[in-house]
Design goal:
The structure is a single chain. With 270 residues, the protein is an alpha/beta fold. It has helices at residues 16-27, 39-51, 66-80, 103-131, 152-172, 193-199, 202-212, 221-232, and strands spanning 7-10, 31-36, 55-60, 85-88, 134-139, 177-184, 243-246. Strand 1 (7-10), helix 1 (16-27) and strand 2 (31-36) form a beta-alpha-beta unit. Helix 1 crosses helix 8. The longest helix has 29 residues, at 103-131. Bound molecules: nicotinamide-adenine-dinucleotide. Residues 11-12, 14-18, 36-38, 41, 61-64, 89-91, 93, 112, 139, 141, 184, 186-187, 189-192, 270 line the site of nicotinamide-adenine-dinucleotide.
């Protein structure tokens, strides 16, 4: 068990990648504070963890609420005396070109994909500084390392998340705190449901992924969870300020136009 004795907080952990990452952290001995804006979903994740003999608790957290982020972090620190791992995973995808995306959609992308990560990092860093150790993982996307047609708000916010991650990493490295970004490509989770509907169903989505991903398939959340484990554990102890891409080679091919022609009302909202 490589996370024995660690306390971890994961946002948006009631589904998909956040759930799979929480399960792997618990499998490796961490106590996981499983948060989600949907408390029932967070509780389901905790149930899966306890069924596998892990330790966790569920907390409701909507990351659009700065005060709620601050009070969650404060209460975990006071209950557990430390916070070793913070995985800022919540995100939102608003599709569309500059002409299609409204300023509300752009601001929502910024609020969830960038601002919320900033607030959580700001709250946890003094705690990690006192401990002289800690790991922060910010979920960005491979959409933060390439450009894509008609994905103005998502690409801009995910690229900003990566730049912010690298900047924070630089500022806190001397305190023993590592900060990295996770950049998945297509992962088989409900996050892609709106795009699946837009394409006309699962078969069309799989066909599209076959064309744009050199490995020809989705990742499973469990495959990404192993990347998360590497990044939040001492297995990556000399790595900070890194944006780790796990996308089946999609970014090698220069990206996709997967969001092409999606009206804003079809935007994928997690
Ligand atoms: N699935 C992919 O293909 C993919 C690819 C690249 C990046 N990502 C990133 O992964 C993250 C989510 O993806 P997933 O595949 O795990 O999604 P998912 O749809 O499986 O789960 C999303 C979870 O986020 C929760 N959530 C939504 N808004 C929230 C908020 N404001 N505060 C707290 N919780 C909230 C939902 O309740 C849900 O449980 C996003 O940051 C996304 O940009 C996903």
């Amino acid at each position: 068990m490589i996370l024995r004795g660690k306390t971890a907080i994961v946002t948006a952990a009631g589904s998909g990648i956040g759930r799979a990452g929480s399960l792997v952290m618990a499998r490796e001995g961490a106590f996981v504070v499983v948060t989600d804006r949907n408390l029932e979903a967070a509780e389901e994740t905790v149930q899966l963890i306890t069924q596998a003999s892990g330790r966790a608790e569920a907390r409701r957290l909507d990351v659009s609420d700065d005060a709620a982020i601050n009070s969650l972090i404060e209460s975990v620190a006071s209950a557990h005396d430390r916070i070793d791992i913070l995985h800022n995973h919540a995100g939102v995808q608003v599709a569309g070109s500059i002409e299609q995306v409204g300023s509300e959609g752009f601001d929502r992308s910024w609020a969830i994909n960038v601002h919320a990560q900033f607030v959580a990092c700001k709250a946890v860093i003094p705690i990690m500084k006192r401990q002289k150790s800690g790991v922060i993982l910010n979920t960005a996307s491979n959409s933060g390392v390439f450009l894509d047609r008609e994905m103005t708000a998502y690409i801009t916010s995910k690229a900003a998340s990566i730049t912010m991650t690298r900047q924070i990493a630089l500022d806190v490295a001397s305190y023993g705190i590592r900060v990295n970004a996770l950049c998945p490509g297509w992962v088989d989770t409900p996050f892609n449901d709106p795009y699946t509907r837009q394409l006309g169903g699962r078969a069309a989505l799989e066909h599209s992924i076959k064309n744009v991903v050199p490995m020809g398939r989705f990742a499973t959340p469990e495959e990404i969870a192993e990347v998360i484990l590497f990044m939040v554990s001492d297995r990556s102890s000399y790595m900070t300020g890194h944006a780790l891409v796990a996308d089946g080679g999609e970014s090698l091919a220069g990206g996709t136009n997967a969001g092409s022609a999606l009206p804003e009302e079809a935007a994928a909202l997690v």
